[in-house]
Amino acid sequence: MWGTRGTIPTPEAENGRYGGNTPCIEVRSSEDDLLILDAGIGLHWLGDELMMNSFGGGEGRGHILVSHTHWGHIQGIPFFLPMLISGNRFSIYGTGGADSFKDLLLEQMASYYCPVPNFFDDNIGALTRIEEIDEREFDIGSTRVTARRVNHVPDVVTLGFRIEDAAGGSLAYIPDVEYLEQEHRDQTLELAAGVDMLIHDAHQTTDEYPARRGRGHSSVQDAIEIARQAQARHLVLFHHHPDRSDSAIDDLLRSCDSVGLRVDAAREGAEYTL
Predict the structure, then answer these.
(1) Residue 5 domain-assigned?
(2) Is the pTM here over 0.90, yes or no?
(3) pLDDT value of residue 95
(4) What HEC string does the chain produce?
């Protein structure tokens, strides 16, 4: 886990254990295919790590699955060093809804906003393919990826992902979601059914949620209920609110001790084997 924080980076001392980088998770398949879930600022630090292996020599191959194009989920792309190395190859999957996904990514690379070269349009660095996807299933090596729409905010199409390895091991990644109707729950339950790990939005506490209903995020209790209904084996609370300190997240975890389910809070640097 390279980025676990929601909305904006929070490089504060009181966030040192759970981390302040925005969403980015590295997934390695049984065949060592590299899948990257979201491209928040955590992607920069993952890039530094990748530069120490085949990506540093221009021989790397990676796949980036973008849940949606809010800044917190794409702003790591311009600062992802392996993408500036000729010979590397990347595929970026996502959707812009009614707009072009590629155009939305290109906009943030415009020199008005971005201090680094536009490697999408300037034909420098890695060979990068941007693929518009919506609700579909496809394979990346030994891994089956299922993408489904989940409810976040009305004007942005948001995807959740289910990742299944042919050799065993499965996870569902639902970083931004709110359940205003039963249909919204059904979408997530399809992705999360029986997974080894469910990484789920827990931006709000259960007490905070009523006053913030309609803002596109879940409470801790929502995440627990979905994990139970989906019969997920392990729940990881994700997309921590930028104002939530390490000690406050510790308190949230203690409140989950009696729910009868393995619950962790996403922490930068944590590694799991499924």
Answers:
(1) no
(2) yes
(3) 97
(4) CCECECCCCCCCHHHCCCCCCCCEEEEECCCCCEEEECCCCHHHHHHHHHCCCHHHHCCCEEEEECCCCCHHHCCCHHHCHHHHCCCCEEEEEECECCECHHHHHHHHCCCCCCCCCCCCCCCCCCEEEEEECCCEEEEECCEEEEEEEEEEECCEEEEEEEEEECCCCEEEEECCCCCCCHHHHHHHHHHHCCCCEEEEECCECCCCHHHHCCCCCCEHHHHHHHHHHHCCCCEEEECECCCCCHHHHHHHHHHCCCCCCCEEECCCCCCCCC
